[in-house]
Write a structure and sequence with these properties.
Number of strands: 27
Helix content: under 10%
Number of domains: 3
Oligomer: single chain
CATH superfamily of the largest domain: Immunoglobulins
């Protein structure tokens, strides 16, 4: 009979969790409802709009004038960002379907140091042992940082051991005491004015922990860079008088080479420009080739790159290696030559 039915009312129909952290996992809130009707109120179902939200509710009949609860739990784990969820309440009330809502913003997990510093260096942990400074113009100075962390439960004294022969090395690191869970950084770099070198370079330093100097690979830091000549300030007159490198793109040895011996060959280079041509460096990643660059080549003159092939340890067959000539030819500062030979 009308007027004798239960009536459901809520103290609130929306709950804003605000900002919560993903690592908090499950968070809950309680929606309190009251039966303001004349007969017992029974909730037959409470259903969430997705599996990340779980409701539990009062299952017993709620007598007139009494209250019940719906607990809504949201699982924030793995769900960073803003969320809005609907919970549908079905009952025998005069309004058989009601909806309540939750919302908020999940802040993503912060990456813990243990997940960042994965490279072991003695008692320290680092993100990387390699500092790649990229391309550096000759005459420039460039530094970078390598971070470390003390993930142990005791303090450690940290320093670097450098090689005095590495004239280009810049080290701004001093002896430091690092407390447990504390982080620090090595500041390292290259001053290209200190050495007359072009092309890829690698400089090595070693981490000293608690006074222990170890030159094994786990304690080795590598600073890498590729040094290029800077032609940006050249005037028109300088460009007109610049050297020009001419050479063949491929140098093939026609006769077969005997195994276990060394052979020396010269491939020619010409300077068709005005000013002297300087061959800064000839790169090759094969230890069986020993390369010697020529001295400066005057205008209109020829020179040659000397290549000695050591066939010891080479299996019979054809070989092809790429040489990279680095010079002061501003238009083509790096030229490639394919060097070919065959071992019988």
């Amino acid at each position: 009979m009308m007027g004798q039915e239960p009536v459901i009312t809520f103290e609130k129909t929306v709950h804003d969790f605000g900002k919560i952290h993903e690592e908090d996992g499950r968070v809950s809130t309680i929606f309190t409802f009251k039966n303001e009707g004349m007969s017992p109120l029974v909730l037959s179902n409470v259903r969430a709009s997705c599996g990340c939200t779980t409701p539990t509710w009062t299952k017993e009949p709620v007598e007139p004038g009494q209250s019940g609860e719906i607990t809504v739990t949201y699982n924030a784990n793995g769900r960073p960002g803003h969320f809005e969820k609907t919970v549908t309440v079905t009952s025998n009330a005069t309004e058989p379907t009601k909806r309540i809502y939750i919302k908020g913003e999940v802040l993503p997990k912060q990456v813990k140091p243990v997940n960042q510093y994965t490279v072991a260096v003695g008692a320290l942990s680092m993100k990387s042992r390699t500092l790649d400074l990229g391309t550096i113009k000759k005459g420039a100075v460039l530094t970078g940082e390598l971070e470390y962390a003390n993930l142990t439960d005791v303090e450690h004294k940290v320093d670097l051991a450098t090689n005095a022969s590495d004239a280009m090395l810049i080290s701004q690191t001093t002896l430091a005491t690092v407390q447990p869970n504390e982080t620090g950084k090595f500041v390292l770099g290259i001053d290209t004015k200190r050495a007359n070198v072009f092309g890829p370079v690698e400089i090595y330093v070693y981490v000293v922990v608690d006074g222990k100097r170890d030159v094994s690979e786990p304690f080795q830091l590598v600073i890498k860079a590729d040094i290029e000549e800077d032609f940006s300030e050249m005037t028109i007159e300088q460009k007109q008088e610049a050297p020009i490198l001419e050479t063949q793109k491929e140098f093939a040895i026609t006769q077969k080479l005997a195994a276990g011996k060394t052979f020396k060959y010269m491939f020619p280079i010409k300077n068709s420009g005005v000013n002297p041509l300087e061959i800064h460096r000839v790169l090759c990643n094969d230890s069986h080739l020993i390369i010697k660059e020529p001295k400066a080549i005057k205008s209109g003159k020829k020179g040659a790159v000397a290549v000695t092939i050591n066939t010891r340890g080479l299996e019979p067959g054809a070989y092809s290696r790429q040489l990279t000539i680095i010079s002061n030819d501003y238009q083509h500062p790096r030229q490639k030559v394919t060097f070919k030979w065959e071992v019988e």
